[in-house]
Specification:
Strand content: 35-45%
Shape: globular
Number of strands: 26
Number of helices: 2
Structural class: mainly beta
Helix content: under 10%
Radius of gyration: 19 Å
């Protein structure tokens, strides 16, 4: 453990991002977000996108005084489940009153650095199977498990024992990834990090620095690049944002090092470049991001699709980015909202129409918590 901590200190001292935040050591140059057509859309006409300029209205604060919130999942009745990274607990938040109720703890969570209880997802068949999925850090790895949610039991005892569906995702003090979500195909996707060991991102046999696709039981899916592997794409540094647009295209946000954060259009079997490429380089064999940001403007975590745009929560950037889409490419330049008004932003969740939930992240040991932090805000986005 001493050696791991020492390595992490040296890594940070060298200017490498700790996943959430970056130092000022990146190259000089333009600091505005930039976008460009992706390879997937080359040569094809672009459908009309949403208006070039959007809007964000903070409708209300649903709840506050959350501790290290990370993953969020919506229940069929409109309530939310939210994970506390450092406490290892899952709470239910009433979607109207904001009342918080701890429904249980996840055994085996080992918080530290950027690790702990991270992403949450509910089964596509939740109404019948009542399964809640969690991505979390243990003493030995990152893993994904599912738990039976039994509302008939007493509060704090409603989560069943974890049933591990995938283990062996590399863990580290930094770059643990952690976002999970069920796609339109009802398969489970997970964004992972390379733990600061950059070579893992290009190692096809490692689960680190990848986007994974699996059945709800954790098995490889027909259509994956390799029939016996859950690896879907690789060459990623630290993926913490996953979302699908209205045409079922998968988008992912990931942290850069000291130069470029990225929004990528994900296709199976493609290599997204890290550590050989960061940002748009046009190098053969690697897929360029659709949009990129200087790291002090973003440090992206969760993303969501709503009102024709990708909405990206930014930690160090302390703002919400809107990326309007026309098919597989941006229809206008990215636009930022809420800059500095609510601190670090961790997770954004679309629940239909223009309604979006936004979760702040000031209590993650990198923020400057104010009374009431952390919060869930209800937004109306256009």
């Amino acid at each position: 453990m001493t050696a791991v901590l020492a390595a992490a200190v040296l890594l940070l001292a060298a200017g490498c991002s700790s996943g959430d935040d970056k130092g000022p050591g990146g190259p000089k140059g333009p600091t505005s977000a930039t976008s460009a057509p992706s390879d997937a859309s080359a040569g094809s006409p672009s459908p009309t996108g949403p208006p070039a300029k959007g809007s964000v209205k903070v409708v209300s604060t649903l709840t506050q005084d959350l501790k290290s919130p990370w993953g969020v999942a919506a229940l069929p009745d409109g309530d939310l489940l939210i994970a506390s990274r450092d406490e290892g607990t899952v709470s239910r938040v009433d979607g109207e009153s904001g009342k918080q109720t701890v429904i249980g703890s996840v055994p085996g969570v080992s918080p530290g650095g950027e690790g702990g209880l991270l992403g949450l997802a509910v089964s596509p068949s939740f109404a019948s199977d009542h399964q809640v999925y969690a991505y979390f850090t243990t003493e030995s790895d990152n893993r994904i498990a599912r738990m039976l949610y039994d509302e008939r039991k007493p509060a704090a005892q409603q989560l069943g024992a974890p049933d591990t569906v995938l283990r062996g995702i590399p863990k580290g003090i930094v770059h643990n990834g952690g976002r999970i979500a069920f796609g339109p195909d009802k398969m489970l996707y997970a964004g992972t990090g390379e733990t600061g060991e950059t070579g893992l991102a290009q190692d096809r046999k490692s689960l680190g620095g990848k986007i994974l696709r699996m059945t709800p039981d954790g098995q490889p899916v027909h259509g994956n690049p390799d029939a016996d592997s859950v690896v879907y794409s690789w060459g990623h540094r630290n993926v913490q944002g996953l979302a699908w647009d209205s045409d079922k295209r998968l988008w992912a946000a990931e942290f850069g090092q000291t130069t470029w954060d990225e929004l990528n259009l994900i296709e199976p079997g493609k290599n997204y470049g890290w550590p050989d490429v960061e940002g748009k380089r046009g190098r053969s064999g690697f897929v360029d991001p659709v949009a990129q940001w200087r790291t002090d403007e973003a440090s992206p975590s969760g993303i969501a699709y709503a009102s024709g745009s990708i909405w990206m929560a930014s930690l160090k950037g302390e703002r919400l980015w809107r990326i309007p889409l026309a098919g597989a490419e941006p229809s206008a330049e990215p636009q930022s909202f809420l800059k500095g008004k609510h601190g670090r932003l961790r997770t954004v969740l679309s629940v239909g129409g223009a309604k979006v939930w936004l979760v702040t992240s000031e209590t993650d040991r990198r923020g400057s918590p104010q009374p009431g932090d952390d919060k869930i805000l209800q937004l109306e986005v256009k």
